[in-house]
Amino acid sequence: MGFCVNGVILLLTAAAATDAAKLPSNFGRCSKSDPKMPECLRANVEDAIQKLKDGSSELGLKRFEPLDIPELIIGEGKGPVNVVQHFKDVELYGLTGSKVQRVNFDFDKKEMHARSITPELRLQGQYSMKGRILLLPIVGSGPCNVTLINTKINHTLIAEPFEKKGRTYWSFKDYTVTLRPERVIFKFDNLFDGDSRLGDEINKVLNDNWDEVFTDVREGYEKSFGLIFHGLANRVFTRVALSDIFLE
Prior knowledge:
Layout: E1 2-5, E2 8-11, E3 30-31, H1 37-51, E4 67-74, E5 81-82, E6 85-93, E7 99-106, E8 111-133, E9 136-164, E10 167-180, E11 183-188, H2 196-208, H3 210-237, H4 242-245, E12 246-247
Parallel strand pairs: 3-12
Antiparallel strand pairs: 1-2, 2-4, 4-6, 5-8, 6-8, 7-8, 8-9, 9-10, 9-11
């Protein structure tokens, strides 16, 4: 599965899909008429994320922990980050530790809004980049680790219904997120052809100024995470009928 939006390229692997699927029997369901539906949704979404740690053959989803992302490109910012960050063979850890704070469905508007907090989101893989950050030259390639701590995430999904074999499904035409981490920790190995002194100094500068650095490229990370979540959500909702997800 491939995506390209405004300089952000994401390739997300998933198991082969079939025409239709059933929600696993151990997944909770909520009734549309339940006055406590928002709390029911919150609990069930959080529970489902945890149950997808090892993936789901019924839904055609591979493991969530870690989630494999073959390639991810974050474009340069408009301020201090004058470098394209090119990541490959990324493993994303921490999604299944997310705590869902609220979930609301507006069935008339066909919108879903959710808020979650993830204690640790860690992107671990290979990087390459050449440019400037905070006016300092930076060049290197090798192992890297970008960790977002206590990240508050707002999710907004816009759905478009469609019919298949007499049943109604949802396809999300848009999925946007906002990311507000409490802190970001950067670790890029093998900077400047392995010069450990220069590499340690640059990593220290990045971490001492993490807010300024991350804020400048946050839009790229938000688009990337939005694409990740978009692909995963559509793999479920385009294959599982609404009547199998929500109790009438």
